[in-house]
Task: inverse folding
């Protein structure tokens, strides 16, 4: 539609007109879009790290003599998935760096604070970090 209007205004064929729409976002929306991208990247790194750690746990438990069913119960996977992981060659395991993950998370948190104007508050001690609860429990008995 815009292409045809421009072509008619200029008196040229619409096939010779190329239109590219580039959205311009307000600064707060741009910050939100940027943060969302960083969080997606961090989530992908976390997913890879979880896959690496799960594979390492599965292999270690198998080396310790546990059955695939017992390994599945311990790590929260089906015995079929455990068997698939054990059947994969070691070099087929996903790769990802925890250092990369931490850097991405730090960048995301920093960008979020800057977007909300919290960087100076936290640095000065005015914005206190929220406390979090860590609970520990003993081993769960097998059913």
Result:
């Amino acid at each position: 539609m815009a292409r045809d209007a421009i072509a008619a205004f200029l008196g040229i064929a619409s096939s010779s007109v190329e239109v590219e729409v580039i959205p311009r976002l307000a600064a707060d929306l741009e910050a939100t879009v940027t943060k969302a991208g960083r969080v997606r990247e961090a989530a992908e790194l976390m997913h890879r790290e979880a896959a690496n750690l799960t594979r390492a746990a599965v292999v270690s438990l198998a080396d310790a003599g546990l059955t695939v069913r017992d390994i599945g119960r311990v790590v929260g996977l089906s015995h079929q998935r455990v068997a698939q992981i054990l059947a994969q060659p070691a070099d087929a395991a996903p790769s990802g760096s925890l250092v990369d993950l931490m850097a991405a998370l730090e960048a995301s948190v920093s960008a979020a604070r800057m977007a909300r104007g919290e960087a100076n508050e936290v640095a000065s001690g005015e914005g206190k970090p929220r406390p979090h609860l860590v609970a520990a429990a003993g081993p769960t008995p097998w059913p």
About this structure: DSSP finds six helices and no strands in the chain. The helical segments are 2-10, 27-63, 68-75, 79-87, 98-116, 119-124. The radius of gyration is 26 Å. The first helix runs from residue 2 to 10.
